[in-house]
Structures are given as structure tokens and as C-alpha cells.
Amino acid sequence: MENEKKKDGYKKKSQGSYAVDGRRIIFEKGQIKKNGKKMLLEMFAIECQPKTSIFITGVYSVEHSEIFEEKIKRSVDTAKLSK
User: Fold this and answer.
1) pLDDT by residue (tens digit) across 37-67?
2) 41: which strand partners?
3) Which of 10, 31, 60, 78 is 20 to 30 A from 70 (CA-CA)?
4) How far apart, in whole angstroms, are the C-alpha atoms of residue 17 and residue 72?
5) Would you call 35 helix, strand, or coil by DSSP?
6) How far apart are CA 70 and CA 13, in angstroms?
7) Closest Cα partner for 2 from 31, 35, 40?
């Protein structure tokens, strides 16, 4: 299923899961083409409590991946629900 291309032009690059501080994080990363530009799409779901989660999506141009990739991952790894 990796690198699968869908009808809308989305091409999956990777998917998986990892844990940070005992919280499971699942992700999918892919690429789309919008207005002739290649864009990267990252989606993360963070388990917080049994019935709560946080969903974070990042979309940015391939040429800006050095700027945004690490910042999005840091946001995901440190996201918490407030009371």
C-alpha cells in the first residue's frame, strides 16, 4: 500500500505509528499536486485518553520541507489536551 496513488492525485509515501511518553501516535505522509506545485501532506492522530485524541494535519510545499517538517513533528510530540 506504500506509495499508492489515488484518483485525486494523492500519493502515500509512508504510514506507521510510534510512542512518545506512553502515548501512541499514528501517522500518514503523502504528496499531492496543487496548482502545479508539489505539496507534502502529513496527518497525525495522538491518543490522549481512552475517549479523546488530537488530530494534526500539516500541508506545505516540497521546497519548504526543511522549515516545516521538524516543527510539525515537534508540535505532534508535545501536543496535550488542556482541562
Assistant:
1) 899 999 999 998 888 899 999 999 999 988 8
2) 30, 59
3) 10
4) 15
5) coil
6) 17
7) 31
